[in-house]
Amino acid sequence: MKCPPYFPYFSVKLILKELYSLNFASGGMIMPQLQTRRSFVKNSMAAAAVLGAPALVSGRNLNDKILMGFIGIGNRGSQLLNIFMTQPDVQVTALCDIYEPFLQRDRAQVDHRFSQSVDRIPPMGESFPKSVKRYHDFRRLLDDKQVDAVCIATPDHWHALQTIAACRAGKDVYIEKPLSITLREGRRMVQVARETNRVVTVGIHRRASPIYQKLVAEILSGKIGHISVASAARINNMMPDG
């Protein structure tokens, strides 16, 4: 898929074309054929066999490195970047962000030495080699033949468009939660992933955590009694007043 020129106008047209071309007349909800992470890498081959999903990065040998591009390398994107770099079968080949300081900011060292030390997370002060490409426009990254799969960690309203575009460009996708902001978007994303035979996985980390699954089971079993009040907090808004 060659990305059209003139980013804002054609992006809106592409969103409308993709998201509103889904026919709901047949009824029923399109259920996701999405995979849990392979550590995006390690476990998805077995999962693919179980789920009937295509192998991650279709047509690639298990011994090959997965060439990854990152779309959105701000706060969450940089965290995911460091996590993926701990995987011995991942090679970062491209970065994309509209904010130039993020692109210029040193992220980590990605070279042959890193693959020999998989437990080492490179410090933020180290620089990427020049072979890692930098883009301001995600469509240019999707045109890059040296990218097999992408990690998307952009603002939520971009998730649908960028995932659909990545699938149509032949890239497998790790998309940060939430998958989408509307049901229509999510259904269209699932449909396109199926049509293009791509692997798409969503980073719903706590839902996949055995610790949280056990906690939910304990609560549902009634072991702590009836729950009448619950509170939630975020790091930058630790607890509500009162």
Can you offer a commentary on this structure?
The chain has helices at residues 7-19, 44-51, 75-84, 100-104, 112-115, 138-142, 159-168, 183-196, 205-208, 210-220; strands at 66-71, 90-96, 133-135, 149-152, 172-176, 200-203. A six-stranded parallel sheet has the order 3-2-1-4-5-6, with helices on both faces. The protein is α/β, with parallel strands linked by helices and 242 residues long. It has a single domain, classed as 3-Layer(aba) Sandwich (Rossmann fold), CATH 3.40.50. Helices cover 35% and strands 12% of the residues. It contains ten helices and six strands; from the N terminus they run ααβαβααβαβαβαβαα. The chain is globular and about 55 Å long. Strand 1 (66-71), helix 3 and strand 2 (90-96) form a beta-alpha-beta unit. The longest helix has 14 residues, at 183-196.
Helical fraction: 25-40%
User: What is the number of domains?
Assistant: 1
Mean pLDDT: 71
Rg result: 19 Å
Low-confidence stretches: 1-12, 22-59, 108-121
What share of residues are in beta strands?
5-15%
Number of helices: 10
CATH class category: Alpha Beta
Query: What's the β-strand tally?
Result: 6
* Helix/sheet category: alpha/beta
User: Could you give the order of the helices and strands?
Assistant: HHEHEHHEHEHEHEHH
